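Recall the central idea of this unit: under ordinary conditions, the amino acid sequence of a chain determines the structure it adopts. In this exercise we apply that idea directly, starting from the sequence alone.
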Amino acid sequence: MKLKLFGTDGIRGIANKYPLTPEMVTRIGIAAAYYLRAKYDNKKRWLCILGKDPRISSDMLANAFIAGITSVGVDVLDLGIMPTPSISYFVEKYKADLGVVISASHNSFEYNGIKFFNKFGEKFSPKEEAILESILFSSYELEKELGLFIGKVYREDKTEEYLDFLSKALSQDLSGLKVALDCANGSTFKVAPLAFKKLKAFVYSYNTNPDGININDKCGSLYPEFISEKVLKIRADLGFAFDGDGDRVVVVDENGKIYSGDKIIALLAKQLNVDKVVLTIMSNFGLEKYFEEKNIKVFRSKVGDREVYYEMKKENAILGGEDSGHIILRNYLKTGDGLLTALIISKIVVETGKSLSELIPNYKEYFQAKDNIKVKNKKDFENYEPYKNFIEKYKNQARFVVRYSGTEPVLRIMVEAEDENLA
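Accordingly, the structure predicted from this sequence is:
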């Protein structure tokens, strides 16, 4: 069933345009409360943990959601600006019923979104999203609570608690390591530099002054050239570029060379000695062949770190990710965490005494040609005869991935082949 609001990563759109108006987000909050009351009807109080990124509309939408969900008796622990993966962690830690993040991840400032986590710290499955939408669009009047039954709001700073979790995941310090961090003027602007400093690394941090509109503005994971230049300038050992909500990372070695998610997954698979990995349909076929040569079983999922996680859960894999930089280390968290990934890579460099350029596995990549086409309407193209004929003609020579973005009005096209001219 095609959902009305949810895409590959929650609800996403332009802030103050449907469905991300204060009125609609309040109603989404009310529907979320009814979802919890129906799912956990044996409880008298319910708890939602909420975080947000620092874009200009996040306060407006967070307050609208809080107004809605508390009006039906759900308490909210508002953690303020925190990376998306930290909400997954805290939902499990505090045995909350729901996690919510107001963020549009890598998108520019005019966008925003709502991400949902269930009580296990997992992003909502399509089934959970469908149930929430059925409540939201039902014809029944969703009644509010009165008096003592209205939900309470608690606001706390959990930065130190998250730093403790990250440092314990490493079990050693990073003394002597010089790192450059691009925090994208996003949710990692405070926690990322503190995490590396807590572990005694030398830290040079950039884009750590969010003003509501500079999030992802020619910086962060979509613009890794920025941190590459800084690595060379300060002669850092490593560089990391996060996205706006901190769930993905792009890595740069000591020579300024940029590595996407595929290369990082290859490195982690080798260092963590895994026997299976989960990739998406966008990952390079050369990486799959490399894993086959190493007797590492490969599973492919649809695009989106949510899809990667549920495939990992199904196949009992501890490592998975996307070429975009979402890396899931399932022994630690149930969602992608750019900062955790950066720290684990740093630990590997320190432990081995080798540079990242020495550690990155070398394998032959297939050539990929990619394009993003802006669209007004997401029309069906799979039954379009010229498209079907083209795919049929070249299907034995190249691999095609044509799909609509789940977060933007964009048609994404990828052609992959061993022959560069063909791609």
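The chain has a mean pLDDT of 94.
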